[in-house]
Design goal:
The structure is a homodimer. Helix content of chain A is 33%, strand content 24%. Chain A is of the alpha/beta class. Chain A has one domain: Alpha/Beta hydrolase fold, catalytic domain (Rossmann fold, 3-Layer(aba) Sandwich).
Chain lengths: 279, 279
């Protein structure tokens, strides 16, 4: 495994670094960012929070805008932020911001032309953690979080793989993608017209039938422009009620879909994950 | 005075807002951002920290990347971030990133074609605070801070107007612009070849002869690429020694010129200013 270091910035006593590597899962070169807290310099492995970003984002948005390094440094947690899709000139794309590059939706595409590269589900679940745990002082104690499309990805990955994650959280997740315009467009392209396969990538449908529980925290702004048409947190709440899933879902008056909302509550999310990661 | 609200985001219980207005000082339309902490909603006026950004920046960089809202909300301080130069199609510009738009250097230009719009010194000192204190629940208790070119601007404004600012701080300021490539290029264009007028915009030369002291805090990363050629904090230190100026200048091993450095130490700067603003 070879990885190339692209940048390094000291931050809160730890290090923010960007790397590129060739992904066998995605058949292309990929970039990711990692924040290593000061505790990772002591020869000890630190636990990891994987962060999945939303539509149009790269590895940079969360690292630059969430203000998360401060608490990660205090709690001794690494943060890993992958890109949001495969990248490169030969990777299929779409004119819309909500399909193709920057919009991988954390699924394994089965339909042409997407299936050649768009396998973000496998990349985030398997290849990326294996690389991180091989190359960095990061343990296999993993939690996962994300925003919007990335909140959907985090919930789906944790709900389908409860043995792999200690905890999951999301900001403003696309909670019921089979039932909203963003999800229908992306799943229709990546997974095809037969909607039966879509259920495995829908957090509300997965939570409804869940029997193994991963501690889950969701925060949602009530002034979010996408709340009623795209995000539908009420579907996740109803699903949790049905299966008895211990979901903590908080609504916040006045907050929108931006990183200002994430920054305002990222401390609570990091403290939530650290509770389970350090146990 | 009319101002137009361009955006509003709730952040840490307060509000981040962007506005545009016509500036008589700069003869063009300008954008600025303001963070109003929760305390500003109680009918009481809050004190203000004016933040001046560095080369190529707008009002957005600091607000999005510094993670400053958290402490501003805790301490009850408003933050005002102007743009870094006049803007618009009829505003003179240069091909370089270090002259013209995005590079106003917080001076009043005297040379054509710059003198028509480039009067950022007057804008930040007079027009902007007058507008802020007229239109928002913000008092005339003012502190000022900035990064790089903005650190230069903050120091110069406070050193020349000690009665107007309670405290000043800077990250990685251009400390002796008459003596570095960025400063020589900008001052040569804006102020002309006669270097006598340059001294009024040089923090080290001003500090050297200062007799009225504003509490001053400067932080500098030792892994900053611009440290020796452009920033020269040692000149500021020598000037402070000469005049007995109570300058606190801290060097930090491993930190670079990026916003990750600012984010790492912005809490200390806000606490520093709050000490003087709230007294």
């Amino acid at each position: 495994m070879t990885i190339e270091n692209l940048s390094s910035n000291k931050s809160f006593g730890g290090w923010h670094k960007q790397y590129s590597h060739y992904s066998k899962t995605l058949n292309c070169s990929m970039r990711f960012a990692i924040y290593l807290p000061p505790q990772a310099s002591n020869g000890k492995k630190v636990p990891a929070l994987y962060w999945l970003s939303g539509l149009t984002c790269t590895d940079e948005n969360f690292m630059q805008k969430a203000g998360a390094h401060r608490m990660a440094a205090e709690l001794g947690v690494a943060i890993i932020a992958p890109d949001t899709s495969p990248r490169g000139d030969d990777v299929a794309d779409d004119e819309g911001y909500d399909l193709g590059k920057g919009a991988g939706f954390y699924v394994n595409a089965t339909e042409a032309p997407w299936s050649k590269h768009y396998r973000m589900y496998d990349y985030v679940l398997n290849e990326l953690p294996a690389l991180i745990e091989d190359m960095f002082p990061v343990s296999d104690q993993r939690s996962i979080s994300g925003h919007s499309m990335g909140g959907h990805g985090a919930l789906v990955l944790a709900l389908r793989n409860p043995e792999r994650f200690q905890s999951v959280s999301a900001f403003s997740p696309i909670s019921n993608p089979v039932n909203c315009p963003w999800g229908k467009k992306a799943f229709g392209a990546y997974l095809g017209k037969d909607t039966a396969s879509w259920a495995e990538y829908d957090a509300s449908l997965l939570m409804q039938k869940a029997s193994k529980f991963v501690p889950a925290l969701v925060d949602q702004g009530e002034a979010d422009n996408f709340l009623t048409e795209q995000l539908k947190p009420e579907m996740l709440e109803a699903a949790a009620k049905q299966s008895g899933y211990p979901l903590e879902l908080n609504r916040h008056e006045g907050y929108d879909h931006s990183y200002y909302f994430i920054a305002s509550f990222i401390e609570e999310h990091l403290r939530f994950h650290a509770k389970y990661l350090n146990s």
